[in-house]
Amino acid sequence: MSKLSKDVFRILVIITCALIVSLAGNKAQTDEVKKVGIIGKGSQKAFATRLESIKQGMKEYGYVEGQNVSFEYRFADGNLDILPTLANELQNLDLDLLVAAGCPAADAAKELANTVPVVVYTTNPVTTGLVKTFAH
Fold first, then answer.
1. What is the pLDDT of residues 107-125, one digit of tens each?
2. Residues 121, 129: Cα–Cα separation, whole Å
3. Residue 100 CB: number of other CB atoms within 10 A?
4. Does this model's pTM top 0.90?
5. What is the Cα–Cα distance from 17 to 57, expressed in whole angstroms?
6. Quick one: which of 125, 93, 130, 102 has its CA closest to 39?
């Protein structure tokens, strides 16, 4: 992974953790399981290292898979045409947070942004036209 990719990924982990913490307050609630959806254009295997980093970052804030956070994965395995269908599946799961890996996945997840916070893992969402500014 290049230095830029590592930096972008670290930012993703920090943002993901911050959003989860903000949803539940300052301390993880052990009696309520938060649901995090992850959608990507590639394969789950290709995203495995990043998934583990996200889980580790969340664990540092008290969120442990199987205890107080669960993950729902939807990966297109390169078939970008199915991303909207995958996003619709996630929309029906009452998520607390959605992580979109890459611009195609983020485009498919845009509809969910009105009902659930969406964190996008991409190099530059402004340049690709995904968002107008980093503030939005």
1. 888 877 778 888 877 777 7
2. 14
3. 29
4. no
5. 7
6. 102
